Amino acid sequence: MGTVAEGAYARAGVDQLLSGNAVAALVGVLSGIRTGRPSRAALASGHYANVLRLDETRGLALSCDSVGSKVIVCEQLGRYDTIGIDLFGMNANDVVCVGADPIALLDYIAVEEANPEVLEQIGIGLRHGAEQAGVEIPGGELAVLPEVVRGHPSPHGFDLVGFCVGLVDLDAVVTGARIEPGDAIVGLPSSGIHSNGLSLARSVLTDIDEELDGRTVGNLLLEPTVIYVRAIRELLESDVDVRGLAHITGDGFLNLLRLEADAGYRIDAPLEVPPVFVHIAERGGVADAELYEVFNMGCGFCVAVPRDEAPAAVRLLERHHPGTAVIGQTTTATGVVELPKQGLIGRHGEGFTAAP
Predict the structure, then answer these.
(1) Residue 5 pLDDT exceeds 60
(2) Which is the CATH superfamily of the domain at 40-172?
(3) In this structure, which topology does domain 184-354 adopt according to CATH?
(4) Domain spans in the chain, listed from the N-terminal domain onward
(5) CA 294 to CA 288: how far, in whole Å?
(6) Which residues, other chains included, contact 326 with Cβ-Cβ below 8 Å and sequence gap of 6+?
(7) Is the full-model pTM beyond 0.85?
(8) Which terminal residue of the chain has fewer beta carbons within 10 Å of its beta carbon, N or C?
(9) Does the bond joining 155 to the residue before it have cis omega, within 30 degrees of 0?
(10) How many CB atoms are closer than 10 A to CB 316?
(11) DSSP per-residue letters across 47-98
(12) Torsion sign, CA atoms 134, 192, 65, 59
């Protein structure tokens, strides 16, 4: 099997290998910034969020992300009341991955035309997302950019970006460094596609009015991202030893490799795959190697805990997210993600290929 760069996602306009190289080029330049004073960054680039030292004991966690091309589905359906939830899912879920308590999100909304009804709907989603995450929206920005933003259809184009901050004690930052081979990996169910891989999904499921499994394609694609913040914060405040937290977004289970662990990951009891991914695979002829590199495939978040503490973690998390279960364990194969049921093995920068 080839990598995603040779598959359906690239044909849909997203070359992940090229994107990765582009990010590396950008980070390479930014890493050379010299401010004339010591850096406050407590983590290296590449984690879900970074942490800036405020003083000797307290840190500020930071993350910035958008909702991606899911906005196009909103424009096509003329429905904007849930996309704000996705913004919190994409940002607050990342901030909590370093053990932080997300406290605020600033939103940036760029529009082709300032339509009060549309902005009210976007605001409804933002309010619901804020309440689900327990995060304030203390401010934001609206930019009217008709020469930059074009809708599907025009003039309904918009983009939605968020910047989220959280607080964390420096001695409580979760990086994955304490993960040991043999730890349990607990998986929390997703609600579907969430907000990654929409370009591929839309290129395959082209009729947004078609009914699949009793729902229209448009509504399947717009299903909001699950916000895991409250459940993970409760877990962090419990007696469970939380060693690693991973938001499963674009790159699928390869996101586990963002943790600073001297270990690999074997997902041998995956959660049930939602039907929408089955439809994408069948309609688009998308191979498992590509599906598991682009989508969450039913698992939206992973937690690494000691094996003997996994039952307690599952009980706590399942109260918030029914279907939570142990899906695998960490291994001695550092830098490797194994999916034995799919016959796949993955490494950073290589994607998933057929296991030998």
Answers:
(1) no
(2) PurM-like, N-terminal domain (3.30.1330.10)
(3) Phosphoribosyl-aminoimidazole Synthetase; Chain A, domain 2 (3.90.650)
(4) 40-172, 184-354
(5) 10
(6) 184, 185, 186, 187, 269, 310, 314
(7) yes
(8) C
(9) yes
(10) 19
(11) SSSEEEESSSSEEEEEEEEE-TTHHHHHHHHT--SSHHHHHHHHHHHHHGGG
(12) positive
**β-bridge partners, 211:** 216
Tell me: pLDDT of 98 over 80. Answer: yes
| 134-157: b (≥16 Cβ within 10 Å) or e | ebebeeeeeeeeeeebebeeeebb
Q: What is the DSSP string of 105-144?
A: EEEEEEESS--HHHHHHHHHHHHHHHHHHT-B---EEEEE
* Whole-angstrom distance, CA of residue 83 vs CA of residue 103: 20
104, burial (CB in 10 Å: exposed 0-12, middle 13-18, buried 19+): middle
> Under a CB-based contact definition with an 8 Å cutoff, are residues 4 and 16 in contact?
yes
DSSP state of 297: T
Token duo for residue 137: 């929206």
Taking only Cα atoms into account, the Rg of the chain, rounded to an integer number of angstroms, comes to: 20
Distance CA 196, CA 202 (A): 11
153 preceded by a cis bond (ω within 30 of 0): yes
Instruction: State the chain's mean pLDDT as an integer.
Output: 93
User: What is the C-alpha to C-alpha distance for residues 206 and 188, in angstroms, rounded to an integer?
Assistant: 29
